[in-house]
Amino acid sequence: MSASQSMIEVAHVLTSVEVGGAEQLVLQLIPAMAAHGYRGRVICLRRGGALEPAFRRAGIDVDTLPRGERGGAGMLALKLSRHLRQRRPVILHTHNNSPLLVGAAARKLAHVACHVHTKHGASTPSSLPARLGTRWAARRVDQIAVVSAATHRDAVEVDGFPPDHVTVLRNGVARVERAAPRAEPTWSAICVGRLESVKGHRYLIDAVPLIVARHPGFRLAVVGDGSERESLRAQVRALGVEQSVEFLGMRDDVQHLLPCAGMFILPSISEGVSLTLLEAMAAALPIVATAVGGTPEVVADRQSALLVAPADPPALAQAVVAFLNAPQLARELAQSARQRFDAEFSLEQMAAGYSDIYRLALSRSVA
Question: Which of 66, 114, 147, 250 is deepest in the core (most CB within 10 A)?
Fold first, then answer.
């Protein structure tokens, strides 16, 4: 039997492969797991998405369930179960809430050996039927990975996962060679993320006039796309800071853009563990971030970043100005963040952690 034939098959179930943290993580995780004996593919419940070409380039198969005119979670579970019976994976790995519920039902129908689930962020308010469905599914998963201690609390207290089945496994990203520092960065700061309300861009844009009043040459690059694109552009025009904010749209070269900026800003209202935060740490960029979700577990205030309260434009502006006024402080905190990344947040460490979780899940499923 060849090495490829002996690899354990894993089916990762996502709602789609639109740009998002869970999708980006799966894109990096599947190739990294090959070294541990696992071969992955992706199944999308409802549609493909903007990242589908990137998955294809990485040699990862992406299947989308056939669309129907009617049917909710029950119909999706039937479709997924048929797909799983055809593909015959050993491990079903679901990501976030809808795939969890659909996957738990489909796994039972398709007789898949074990079910692993990753909870990527905080629980959001939902209807009573949705909460009951999550609790039903939570009792049927063999092992759960959560990305932070804050997410662990949600998983146990809100979702009802058994505590002894939950493992904290922080996200990781590929190491990058540190770029030589630029004499003059292209942008003073960069913000990378989906243009959605939860990412807090509007508060960062509200902070820009406060920053420009102190540093007229300040320039912010905003990378990403989403439903708030036009409202954020209108906000920039209304504030008269068109010369200070540049929207770059969706980009697949973020790791090359980061060294072109003087600092990284993460203004989220809610967060699991941001992959772009880890990429900024890997690039040794000074970091300003909101103290939400798993972020304070990744970077410590005034040790490896400047952390501020969410939804607080003056606080964001004050932190950015602090770095602009004190380049030595910015360099010291950036270096500390890079050292912490090297010690705890590499892609290799995350892959090894998932290998342990898969082994534990397989042992539970046959116990």
Answer: 147
